[in-house]
Design a protein that fits this description.
The chain is α/β, with parallel strands linked by helices. It has helices at 15-27, 50-55, 57-66, 72-84, 104-111, 143-159, 184-197, 206-211, 219-227, 248-255, and strands at 2-7, 32-38, 90-98, 118-122, 165-166, 200-204, 231-235. α6 packs parallel to α7 and α7 (184-197) crosses α9 (219-227). The chain is globular. It binds zinc ion (2 copies).
Length: 256
């Protein structure tokens, strides 16, 4: 089994820290783990967020508490060391990159020649709206409009050709808000774009753990993805070693 979305952000770049992810993965029957960081953790990616910080004082304050604390060189050094070592399962390293249409060139430039195993794109901010931070941010929000923009951005993410996969592809549902219109057309366009680019989509247990939302993507979205032949990869979106592999067995079963 594979867990293709694991954050290592809460510890130092040491073998002891990586070993804790490996141990949990083995105990839960994983034979492959994909480790990553949010790109905003790295100083090199801070300028990519200028626009969204200008749009929202909330995001600006949040960003400056969390962002720009690491250097890419340190991460790449860790990756080299782990690759040269012997671990009892396959480890891949990547980045989770926030998608902003205006920043495609920045991402292309910044990630070129980095030698990572994968780049996964995520919609975390809809214009100036941090929709997945906490439910109160949704007060007074036009839900249909946010759904439309979320899927427009997701389709543009896929069409950008920058990424190997898309993370948590319908995470907009995490607090239970629903669009009043059918999402089938958006699902169709998203799956078509992912298939055209040879990208994978995550089947993730992350938002269920956070908010109690249904496990994995909407069954209709999963069916459309399958119809287009999109590769589906299971993911915990773990932020602690203890979360590695959580829900992955169940996610596999849902893939049939
Ligand atoms: Zn994410
Ligand atoms: Zn993540």
């Amino acid at each position: 089994m594979q867990d293709c979305h694991i954050h290592i952000e809460r510890g130092d770049y040491t073998f002891a820290w990586i070993g804790r992810f490996v141990d949990t993965a083995l105990s839960r029957g994983m034979d492959e783990i994909w480790l990553l960081e949010h790109c905003y953790r790295f100083r090199e990616f801070v300028p990519m967020y200028d626009d969204v910080c200008v749009r929202s004082p909330y995001i600006d304050a949040w960003f400056h508490r969390k962002a720009g604390v690491l250097s890419l060189a340190d991460y790449l050094r860790l990756i080299d060391e782990v690759r040269a070592a012997d671990f009892p399962l396959r480890i891949r390293f990547g980045l989770e990159v926030c998608y902003f249409h205006e920043q495609e060139d920045f991402v292309r430039h910044q990630t070129q020649g980095m030698g990572l195993d994968f780049l996964v794109g995520s919609v975390h901010f809809i214009d100036g709206f941090a929709f997945d931070h906490f439910v109160q941010l949704w007060d007074g929000v036009d839900v249909d409009h946010k759904y439309r923009r979320y899927f427009e951005m997701s389709i543009a993410l896929a069409e950008s050709g920058l990424f190997d996969g898309i993370a948590h592809p319908d995470s907009i549902k995490l607090f239970g808000h629903k669009a009043s219109f059918s999402l089938l057309e958006a699902y169709d366009r998203l799956a078509g774009a992912l298939a055209a680019q040879g990208m994978y989509a995550e089947q993730s247990s992350g938002i269920k753990r956070r908010t109690g939302a249904a496990l994995g993507m909407d069954p209709e979205l999963l069916a459309v993805m399958k119809r287009y032949g999109v590769t589906i990869r299971t993911a915990s979106d773990a932020h602690y070693p203890e979360e590695v592999g959580l829900g992955v067995r169940q996610l596999y079963k849902m893939l049939g």
